[in-house]
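Lecture notes, part 5. Sequence design as translation. It can be helpful to think of inverse folding as translation between two languages: the language of shapes and the language of residues. The source text, in C-alpha cells, appears below.
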C-alpha cells in the first residue's frame, strides 16, 4: 500500500481497532493510529478529550489543504495540532522537519536547505519568510465512515535535524516502520513499569515539546501507536504542571527532564497522583529520583537514546546505575566504540557516549565521548561533574564549562555556573570537594540567575559558551 491509502473500519468492533488494523495491514504498510479504539481519547485540551476518530477527521481536512509537494515544518506550540500536521503530511507523502529549535537563524538555514519547505502554523503565529498553511480553528466534521490511513513503512515521515560542530543542521531520516517499532517497544516497557498490560487509557502530561526527538517519541508517537492520550499544552511552571495533571483522569504519566522535575519538586506544591514519571535529556541524580518517587508516589524511569538510533534503553534510577536495552536491541563493542542494532535499528549505529557494556543488553553510562576531560592524568566527563554539582542541596541548576584550547586557558581551568540563591560559593565548593577528585574542582564558581536551556531542558554547548564569554573576561584582560 502507498502513503495515503485507507483501510475501512466501519465493520470493526470498537475495542478491536488496534489489533484488527494491524492484522489487516500488509507487510509494507502500518496504520496511522494503533493501540486503542477510535472513540477513545488521543489527546486532551483544557480537560476536554479529543477522540482518535476526531483526529482522523482533522488530519484528512488539513491534508486536503496542503500543497501537492513540499517539506513540512510545523511551527505550532500545540501538541495536538502538531500531531494533526504530522499525520496530514504523511497522507500527502511528505516529510516533516524536526529541527532543534525555531530561531530565525535556523529557519533561514532550513529555507536554504529545503527550498520546497512550507510551514503549518496557528492563525496567530508570527509571519515567517516561507509559504504557510494555517490550522483550521474549528474541529473538522466527522464523516459517517471512518477509515484508518495506511502509511508505507519505508516512507521517510520525519527528518530530525541536529546541529553539528559548525552549527549546520545534520539530517537523520526516520521511516514510518522504524518509528512504529520504536514507539511500540517503548509503550510495552512503560506499561510494564506501571504494572500494566499496555498504555490504553494512560493520560500524559509533558514538559517537553513534541517537535524534539524525546518529546516526539515519548508523547506524540506513544499516543498515536501505543494507546496513550497526551495533553495538548506544554506546562513549564510547577503550578501549571500540577493543574495539567489535576484535570486529567488517572492513570497519569509525567514526561519531563531533570531540570523541569527539580523545578516541580522545589515548588513543594500538591500534585495529583501519577502512575509513572519518565525522565530524559540529562543524567538524573539518584537523590532527585528518590525524592521524586516519594513526592509523586510513583516509580521513575529514565530513557536513554540518541537521534541516530532513537530510543535504546530504560532504567529505574533508584534501582542502580545499570540500563536495560529495549527488546531485540543488542550492544556490541565497549567504551567509546559501542554500537547498537536490532529491530528498529536495522544497521549498527555507533553511540556517541562512553558505555561500560556488561552484557549485550545491559550497560552503564559513563558519559559523552565528546565531553571527556583529562586533567593531571585523570579522566572524567562534564556530564559526571554536572551530576554531582546538581546533587548539592540548594543548587537549583548548574553546569561545568571547560574553556576551549586556544581560549587563554587549559583543561584544568574548569568553571562552574550555578543557580543557587542564598548558597555561598564556599558551601558549594566544600560540597564538591566531598564528591569530586581535587583535579576536577572548578577554578571559579559563577552565580547566575538562570542557565540558557532550550525547551527540552538541554543546555546546548554553544549557549553555555556564549554565557561564559559574556561573564568571564579573557586572561589578557582579567
Amino acid at each position: 500500500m502507498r502513503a495515503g491509502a485507507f483501510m475501512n473500519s466501519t465493520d470493526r468492533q470498537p475495542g478491536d481497532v488496534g489489533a484488527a488494523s494491524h492484522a489487516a495491514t500488509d507487510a509494507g504498510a502500518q496504520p496511522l493510529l494503533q493501540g486503542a479504539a477510535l472513540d477513545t481519547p488521543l489527546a486532551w485540551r483544557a480537560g476536554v478529550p479529543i477522540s482518535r476518530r476526531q483526529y482522523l477527521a482533522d488530519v484528512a481536512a488539513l491534508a486536503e489543504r496542503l500543497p501537492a509537494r513540499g517539506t513540512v515544518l510545523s511551527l505550532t506550540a500545540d501538541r495536538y495540532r502538531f500531531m494533526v500536521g504530522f499525520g496530514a503530511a504523511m497522507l500527502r507523502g511528505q516529510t516533516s522537519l524536526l529541527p532543534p529549535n525555531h530561531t530565525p537563524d535556523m529557519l533561514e538555514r532550513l529555507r536554504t536547505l529545503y527550498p520546497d519547505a512550507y510551514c503549518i502554523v496557528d492563525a496567530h503565529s508570527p509571519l515567517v519568510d516561507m509559504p504557510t498553511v494555517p490550522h483550521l480553528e474549528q474541529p473538522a466534521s466527522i464523516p459517517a465512515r471512518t477509515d484508518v490511513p495506511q502509511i508505507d513503512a519505508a516512507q521517510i515521515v520525519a527528518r530530525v535535524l541536529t546541529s553539528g560542530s559548525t552549527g549546520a543542521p545534520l539530517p537523520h531520516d526516520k521511516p514510518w516502520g522504524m518509528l512504529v517499532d520504536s514507539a511500540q517497544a517503548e509503550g510495552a516497557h512503560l506499561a510494564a513499569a506501571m504494572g500494566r498490560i499496555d498504555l490504553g487509557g494512560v493520560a500524559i502530561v509533558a514538559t517537553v515539546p513534541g517537535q524534539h526527538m524525546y518529546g516526539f517519541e515519548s508523547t506524540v508517537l506513544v499516543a498515536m501507536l501505543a494507546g496513550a492520550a497526551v495533553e495538548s499544552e506544554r506546562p513549564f511552571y510547577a503550578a501549571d504542571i500540577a493543574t495539567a495533571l489535576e484535570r486529567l483522569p488517572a492513570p497519569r504519566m509525567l514526561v519531563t527532564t531533570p531540570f523541569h522535575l527539580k523545578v516541580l519538586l522545589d515548588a513543594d506544591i500538591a500534585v495529583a497522583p501519577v502512575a509513572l514519571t519518565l525522565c530524559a535529556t540529562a543524567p538524573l541524580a539518584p537523590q532527585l529520583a528518590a525524592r521524586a518517587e516519594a513526592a509523586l508516589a510513583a516509580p521513575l524511569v529514565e530513557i536513554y537514546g540518541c537521534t541516530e538510533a532513537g530510543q535504546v534503553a530504560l532504567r529505574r534510577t533508584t534501582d542502580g546505575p545499570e540500563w536495560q536495552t529495549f527488546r531485540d536491541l543488542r550492544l556490541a563493542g565497549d567504551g567509546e566504540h559501542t554500537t547498537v542494532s536490532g529491530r528498529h535499528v536495522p544497521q549498527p549505529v555507533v553511540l556517541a557516549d562512553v558505555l561500560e557494556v556488561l552484557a549485550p543488553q545491559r550497560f552503564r553510562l559513563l558519559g559523552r565521548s565528546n565531553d571527556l576531560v583529562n586533567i593531571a592524568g585523570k579522566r572524567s566527563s562534564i556530564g559526571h561533574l554536572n551530576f554531582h554539582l546538581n546533587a548539592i542541596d540548594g543548587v537549583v541548576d548548574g553546569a561545568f564549562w571547560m574553556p576551549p584550547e586556544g581560549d587563554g586557558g587549559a583543561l584544568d581551568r574548569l568553571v562552574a555556573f550555578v543557580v543557587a540563591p542564598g548558597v555561598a560559593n564556599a558551601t558549594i565548593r566544600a560540597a564538591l570537594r566531598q564528591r569530586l577528585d581535587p583535579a576536577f574542582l572548578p577554578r571559579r564558581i559563577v552565580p547566575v540567575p538562570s542557565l540558557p536551556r532550550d525547551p527540552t531542558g538541554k543546555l546546548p554547548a554553544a549557549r553555555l559558551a556564549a554565557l561564559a564569554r559574556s561573564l568571564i573576561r579573557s586572561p589578557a584582560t582579567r
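The translated text above is only one of many valid answers, since several sequences can fold into similar shapes. The chain has twelve helices and 28 strands.
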